[in-house]
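The protein record quoted in full:
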Amino acid sequence: MRCVAALGLWALGLSACAADWTLLTTSTDLKKITYWYVDASSVVSESTLVKAQLRTAWSQMQFGPDNTGYLSTTYISYVDCRRRLLAYTANTYFSDFDSTGEPVHQEPELPLAELSFAPARAGTPGEMRINYLCKSYEGSSNNSI
């Protein structure tokens, strides 16, 4: 297996192979299963803000606006635990499920001030990510955002 440092993972100083992916949840749609992961070793906090490397993978090929196919994506997530808001940046898309091949598309990491934070709907994987990351934040002494 060839390990590639993706832009979003590089920003955290990790490669896709070094990530410690923990499955958070899966979708209930059996026609197209979606898997949501967090790299538990990437969780860092400062004040009420938590930053982590996340990954989403699908059981079926997804297609971007230019018809590029991908099965997984990694990205940086920020969570404002006090206001319970999410923001994402540095999306990197892969044609393989494990996010270890050559990226098929990359988006740069935006500065924190340029991110759009939004609430997650109740009962969604977004809310599950907020819950997980804010719980990690409560017990974390790692603050290096």
